[in-house]
From TrEMBL:
<dbReference type="InterPro" id="IPR018198">
    <property type="entry name" value="ATP_PRibTrfase_CS"/>
</dbReference>
<comment type="pathway">
    <text>Amino-acid biosynthesis; L-histidine biosynthesis; L-histidine from 5-phospho-alpha-D-ribose 1-diphosphate: step 1/9.</text>
</comment>
<keyword id="KW-0808">Transferase</keyword>
<dbReference type="Pfam" id="PF01634">
    <property type="entry name" value="HisG"/>
</dbReference>
<keyword id="KW-0614">Plasmid</keyword>
<dbReference type="InterPro" id="IPR001348">
    <property type="entry name" value="ATP_PRibTrfase_HisG"/>
</dbReference>
<dbReference type="InterPro" id="IPR013820">
    <property type="entry name" value="ATP_PRibTrfase_cat"/>
</dbReference>
<keyword id="KW-0368">Histidine biosynthesis</keyword>
<protein>
    <recommendedName>
        <fullName>ATP phosphoribosyltransferase</fullName>
        <ecNumber>2.4.2.17</ecNumber>
    </recommendedName>
</protein>
<keyword id="KW-0028">Amino-acid biosynthesis</keyword>
<dbReference type="GO" id="GO:0003879">
    <property type="term" value="F:ATP phosphoribosyltransferase activity"/>
</dbReference>
<feature type="domain" description="ATP phosphoribosyltransferase catalytic">
    <location>
        <begin position="54"/>
        <end position="228"/>
    </location>
</feature>
<comment type="similarity">
    <text>Belongs to the ATP phosphoribosyltransferase family. Short subfamily.</text>
</comment>
<comment type="function">
    <text>Catalyzes the condensation of ATP and 5-phosphoribose 1-diphosphate to form N'-(5'-phosphoribosyl)-ATP (PR-ATP). Has a crucial role in the pathway because the rate of histidine biosynthesis seems to be controlled primarily by regulation of HisG enzymatic activity.</text>
</comment>
<keyword id="KW-0328">Glycosyltransferase</keyword>
Length: 231
């Protein structure tokens, strides 16, 4: 059985992903030209590389088309219900750090915690005639955190696929859930993170689709151990 590893074909995780595999002894070579979406590992006929975008990798792991992938934990947990039952986070790779956070306008002076935000959400309809709105592309993580962890039910998610931090100023949503790394985009948009508003501390991970045929497969174990060994 050939083991397929999904690696980012572009974007911020591309170089670091190939580098970590190379350090682990798996030198990735593109097959064909630079634009090819297939690759292989030098000297190995039992491993294939599929170059995909970071978010496609989490989808392909979920449906089992690839055996392993390197992608952000946020994308896996957002893309997949019951993620831990369906995939194994084999290693945290030390790059691609980003926090998924709840941020509100700085001028909401008496809102510093999720409990404060729960109070605002409860009163929102009476005060404004509508529910509190949250701009995000992280639907699943937002619902789990608000409804599951904090018992906040009165809100509406407004899908945002870009420039999420601009939503409160433009009036398209009241607050946001998005990723931040340096924090400068939040500051530039006069938003603050709630003190207990970090939903997930994400980074690039080596992720494995849990498949029965992986049991006892020496190549699967070899890949996991080799990557762990260079971290
Ligand atoms: N400053 C940042 N902004 C956005 N994503 C970041 C940042 N820092 C780390 N990441 C992580 O990078 C991953 C997204 O990578 P990238 O934006 O390169 O994907 P992508 O190739 O654009 O995917 P797609 O095109 O499918 O959206 C996520 O897991 C995210 O958490
Ligand atoms: O905390 P910071 O360091 O300011 O980074 C956070 C910002 O970076 C990302 O956007 P980016 O412009 O990289 O583009 P993307 O949305 O296409 O990933 C992300 O969506 C945030 O807006």
């Amino acid at each position: 059985m050939t083991i397929t590893i999904g690696l980012p074909s572009k974007g911020r995780m591309k170089e670091d992903s190939s580098a970590v595999l190379a350090r682990a002894g798996f030198s990735v070579i593109a097959v064909g030209n630079d634009r090819s979406y297939r690759g292989r590992v030098e000297g190995r006929d039992d491993i294939e590389i599929a170059f995909l975008s970071a978010s496609e990798i989490s989808r392909e792991i979920a449906n089992g088309t690839v055996d392993f992938g390197v992608t952000g934990e946020d994308l896996v947990r957002e893309g997949l219900a019951e993620a831990d039952a369906r995939v194994e986070f084999c290693a945290r790779l030390g790059f691609g750090h980003a926090d998924v956070v709840v941020a509100v306008p700085e001028i909401w002076l008496d809102v510093d915690t999720m409990a404060d935000l729960g109070d605002v959400a409860a009163d929102f309809r009476a005060r404004h005639g509508r529910r509190l709105t949250i701009a995000t592309k992280y639907w699943r993580l937002t619902q789990q955190f608000f409804s599951g962890n904090h018992g906040i039910q009165l809100y509406r998610i407004v899908e945002s696929l870009g420039a999420t931090e601009g939503a409160p100023a433009s009036g398209s949503a009241d607050i946001i859930v998005d990723i931040t790394s340096t924090g400068s985009t939040l500051v530039a948009n006069h938003l603050k993170i709630l003190s207990d508003g970090v939903i997930l501390k994400s980074e690039a991970c080596l992720v494995r689709a849990r498949k029965p045929e992986h049991e006892g497969n020496p190549v699967v174990a070899e890949i996991i151990n080799a990557v762990r060994g260079v971290l």
